[in-house]
């Protein structure tokens, strides 16, 4: 089945069907108790939650997305297969744990395969840089799966932004529109169970494939002239900025950046007294604003596009400064009360 020219109505229908399928799968896993057997997150001193919570969001999102891509957007077959493979590997990591080199090698192999089989018309050094960014995006999504409603909501808005952008403009892409709608819908089905108080989280089997899909669909849109190269990095800018700045800080302090921690900006918000629900809503508003700006900017002259891109990251830096300021005040108050 192939949707050659999807309309806004059919694209919305794909999203709703994906949401229904995703949430149904996850509710069955919860009702039968299988959710706890597949993977359970046990809270520790680095967690923001206090109760053991299943990490099975990927079991609802990934199968729905893979089937939707293979049936409705078959030209994206490699992306679908790679996402399924990464989900399978990540499920093993959720259950038993895998060495970092094994995980990273799989992420790199998926990205390299996509670029080699479907190369963009660009210099090798630019493709190498894009590939590095895709591997980073694959990993960083996992870092952001720590607060109720955050990762699921950002997937809903981010992939929804892809779908909207792919339907409009001078070079619409039916494949990307359907793929973005399917992932956004599946994320919505997960979010219904992940918003505060969360009944489950993504787990590696959900976050790793979602990160890969964000990079892979973004790459596909660039290579087919649906959007400029900066567009995916602006759509998912809040996640990219948070994870990148946090990683850089840990590297500068000589810390083991791959170890779990509670230093992300969203974690500092929750730890300083902002509720999980309010934190998620603030991030939704920020991401939605960035998507609206990105969608507007991609139709402007190139100079305005890049100025908009840089200006938005400047706005995110200002938001980060405000969060750091609140965090320092919270720490100072805690020390004075101790």
Keywords:
two-stranded antiparallel ribbon, 338 residues, 73% helix
What does this structure look like?
- By secondary structure, the protein is mainly α.
- The chain is 73% helix and 1% strand.
- It is built from 14 helices and 2 strands, in the order ααββαααααααααααα.
- A two-stranded antiparallel sheet has the order 1-2.
- Helix 3 packs antiparallel against helix 8 (174-194), helix 4 runs antiparallel to helix 5 and helix 5 crosses helix 6.
- The model has no long low-confidence stretch (mean pLDDT 89).
Strand order of the largest sheet: 1-2
Q: What is the 3D form?
A: globular
> Which residues form runs of ≥5 with pLDDT under 50?
none
Q: Strand portion, in percent?
A: under 5%
Q: What percent of residues adopt helix (DSSP H or I)?
A: over 70%
The whole-number mean of residue pLDDT values reads: 89
Q: What profile does the largest beta sheet have?
A: 2 strands, antiparallel
Question: Helical element count?
Answer: 14
Order of helices and strands, N to C?
HHEEHHHHHHHHHHHH
Count of individual beta strands: 2
Radius of gyration: 19 Å
Kindly, what is the distance between the CA atoms of the first and last residues, rounded to a whole number of angstroms? 64 Å
Find the structural class using helix and strand composition: mainly alpha
What is the fold's blueprint, element by element?
Elements: H1 8-32, H2 34-38, E1 40-41, E2 53-54, H3 57-72, H4 77-95, H5 100-117, H6 124-143, H7 150-167, H8 174-194, H9 204-223, H10 231-235, H11 237-252, H12 265-271, H13 276-297, H14 302-337
Antiparallel strand pairs: 1-2
Helix pairs in contact: 1-3, 1-8, 3-4, 3-8, 3-9, 4-5, 4-9, 5-6, 6-9, 6-11, 7-8, 7-9, 7-13, 8-9, 11-14, 12-14, 13-14
């Amino acid at each position: 089945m192939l949707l050659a020219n999807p309309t806004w109505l059919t694209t919305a229908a794909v999203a709703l069907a994906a949401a229904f399928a995703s949430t149904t799968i996850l509710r069955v896993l919860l009702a039968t108790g299988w959710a706890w057997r597949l993977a359970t997150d046990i809270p520790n001193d680095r967690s923001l939650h206090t109760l053991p919570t299943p990490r099975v969001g990927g079991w609802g999102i990934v199968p729905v997305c893979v089937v939707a891509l293979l049936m409705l957007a078959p030209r994206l077959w490699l992306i679908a297969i790679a996402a399924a493979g990464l989900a399978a590997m990540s499920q093993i990591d959720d259950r038993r744990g895998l060495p970092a080199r094994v995980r990273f090698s799989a992420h790199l192999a998926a990205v390299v395969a996509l670029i080699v089989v479907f190369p963009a018309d660009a210099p090798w050094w630019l493709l190498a840089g894009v590939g590095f960014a895709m591997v980073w995006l694959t990993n960083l999504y996992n870092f952001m799966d720590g607060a109720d409603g955050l990762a699921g909501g950002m997937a809903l808005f981010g992939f929804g932004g892809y779908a909207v952008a792919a339907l409009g403009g001078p070079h619409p892409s039916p494949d990307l529109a359907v793929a973005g709608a399917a992932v956004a819908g599946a994320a919505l089905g997960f979010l219904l169970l992940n918003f505060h108080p969360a009944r489950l989280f993504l787990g590696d089997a959900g976050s790793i494939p979602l990160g890969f899909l964000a990079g892979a669909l973004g790459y596909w849109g660039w290579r087919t002239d649906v959007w400029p190269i900066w567009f995916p990095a602006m759509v998912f800018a809040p996640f990219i900025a948070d994870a990148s700045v946090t990683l850089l800080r840990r590297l500068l302090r000589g810390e083991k950046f791959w170890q779990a921690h509670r230093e992300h900006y969203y974690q500092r918000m929750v730890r300083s007294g902002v509720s999980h629900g309010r934190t998620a809503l603030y991030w939704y508003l920020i991401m939605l604003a960035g998507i609206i700006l990105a969608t507007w900017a991609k139709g402007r002259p190139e100079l305005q596009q890049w100025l908009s891109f840089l200006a938005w990251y400047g706005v995110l830096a200002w938001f980060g400064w405000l969060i750091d300021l609140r965090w320092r005040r919270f720490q100072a108050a805690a020390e004075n009360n101790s």
